[in-house]
Amino acid sequence: MKNKYLIAMLTVILISGCSKKTEEMANEASAEAQPTQVSTQQDQAAESTSNEPSPTPATTQKPETILNEQVNPAEASRKMVREANVSFESKDVVKTALEIEKLTLSLGGFIEQKNIDFMVQESQSYPIADGKIKIFEKVNPQAEMIIRVPSEKAAHFVNQLLPLMHFLNRQQYSAKRYELKLLEEKMSQTQVVPDHVAAAQINEISRLTRLEVQDRVRYSTIVIGFSQPATVREHIDINLDTIAQLNGDSVWQRAWYGIQKGWQFVLSLLVVLITIWPLYLIILIGLIAYRVMKPYLQKWFK
């Protein structure tokens, strides 16, 4: 009988211990789940905040990397014609162009074209002393460069442009197989060549086209367009109207010139009156004929 009571007591103790452990494990699991839920809610809140438009103006906006510099295995075994187009805003177009030239030469490339324009958007002027005017012009500096660099260094070259940027406006990249690019060039040349061109000339055009595409395979073509914020420049120019008035003749000299011009007008009018002498003769003959015919006309009408 005592053994039965002892077994019952041990069973109760074991059951109570297991229930306590279960409660402790549940409490620990809930405690671990709460920070996870809090972090998840924080991540969701941060994500929703990042998707909202920011009213704060950005002073600079550019990515950390433009092109991936790792070689694609699919492209490594093929001849590819790589082309890129990048447009951005910089501090100074002249200094930026010089930095791009240095970068191009350091990578073994060359500059195919370079244009820098200072476009006048608006101008105002006002007169100052001594027949001069002061002019203020709002200028928008813009530049465009066509760079040729070795194809394996094209991505590295484009990424090296990031320190020169303030705002990245546009980026484009294309990689076409040599055969497809050659076919495109030949088709475009075929549309341009007239029908009367000899076969030898067509073959020469095809040969030059093939060489051009091969050169594009070796050296990627990168078109770079960049600008800087508008600036105001000031310079002094000459006002011709004011100078003409300041250096013109006096009143008496102009009056004398007026008298001379008036006399010349009278002489010219006299020449015109003399020139129409046949008209005077016709009028005189008409008057004489009227006087002769007047008595007969009076009798006739009576």
From TrEMBL:
Keywords, comma-separated and alphabetical: Membrane, Transmembrane, Transmembrane helix
PROSITE patterns: PROKAR_LIPOPROTEIN (PS51257)
Biased composition (Polar residues): 33-64
Transmembrane segments: 263-290
Domain of life, per lineage: Bacteria
Region (Disordered) residue spans: 25-64
Protein name: DUF4349 domain-containing protein
Organism listed in the record: Acinetobacter amyesii
